Amino acid sequence: MSSTNNRKKLLLMGRSGSGKSSMRSIIFSNYSAFDTRRLGATIDVEHSHLRFLGNMTLNLWDCGGQDVFMENYFSKQKDHIFQMVQVLIHVFDVESQEVIKDIEIFMRSLKQLKKYSPDAKIFVLLHKMDLVQLDKRDELFQIMMNKLSEASTEYGFPNLVGFPTSIWDESLYRAWSQIVCSLIPNMSTYETNLIKFKEMLNAYEIILFEKMTFLVICSSNGNLQINNDTNSNTINNKDEKKKSNIVAIDPKRFEKISNIMKNFKQSCTKLKSDFKTFVLNDSIYVSEISPNMVCFIVLNDTRQSQQLVLENVSKASQYFQ
């Protein structure tokens, strides 16, 4: 694959104050949610060249959301901004008092993408969802997604994907994991090899993370496309549960682990330390499996020796380069 094909242009757009730079700093620059309070407004376009999985470069264009800049994007700079875009991530502030104008700007972006990058993937993040009453969140999300999906389809982008997000919980990791993983060309190879590795270790589940961001790449059990219904993976009938001997799995486990591991990594950095492997209760292993990936292993059989497990991780590394 050529180096040009390994460069992926991502447009991060939305009105001023919607939280674009905060989420970018948390995911890619190891900021905590508290750290983002010192960030200023983005002036024009900030370019970040981010290495992901070693051989892929994410060219992230964080576009300032002030009206004067927005008008410039859609007039003088349109062929520069909207050309060769792989992904548009449009951020909406759920507390905005100008929703109609927010949607209008989104539609103007789609119009330019249809002309300059008709194959781009479109993602929308309904951000600051923590500020909405818990019992109103699903309703608000569905209302906005219906409006945005209609607009997106009108401009030739029928496969709109949306997420409710907040910098104060793990939802940000869920959204960005799926966004970035949509760009990985050999995802099926990783998934196949991970399933074989799980069988070899007799593991309950193995999850692959990108080393720097701790975004989820894939799981041996699949199901990264998580339903918004948090109860979708639970078993309600107690008798059925006993018969089938199935343990209900938290559908938000991927992003929760991402959040925990990222915080752990930040703590290590503050102590000027690092980790390559740690083991918890002889059943959970977190270990580097390649220079760009970390695996999170949950074993079925805790009687396996640590040395044997780690040797198998080392041998499997050649399949995750």
UniProtKB/TrEMBL annotation:
InterPro entries: Gtr1_RagA, P-loop_NTPase, RagA/B. It holds the Pfam family Gtr1_RagA. Gene3D superfamilies: 3.30.450.190, P-loop containing nucleotide triphosphate hydrolases. Keywords: GTP-binding, Nucleotide-binding. One of its GO terms (cellular component) is nucleus. SUPFAM superfamilies: P-loop containing nucleoside triphosphate hydrolases. GO terms for molecular function: GTP binding; GTPase activity. GO terms for biological process: cellular response to starvation; negative regulation of autophagy; positive regulation of TORC1 signaling. It comes from the Eukaryota. GTPase involved in activation of the TORC1 signaling pathway, which promotes growth and represses autophagy in nutrient-rich conditions. Component of the GSE complex. Belongs to the GTR/RAG GTP-binding protein family. This is GTP-binding protein.
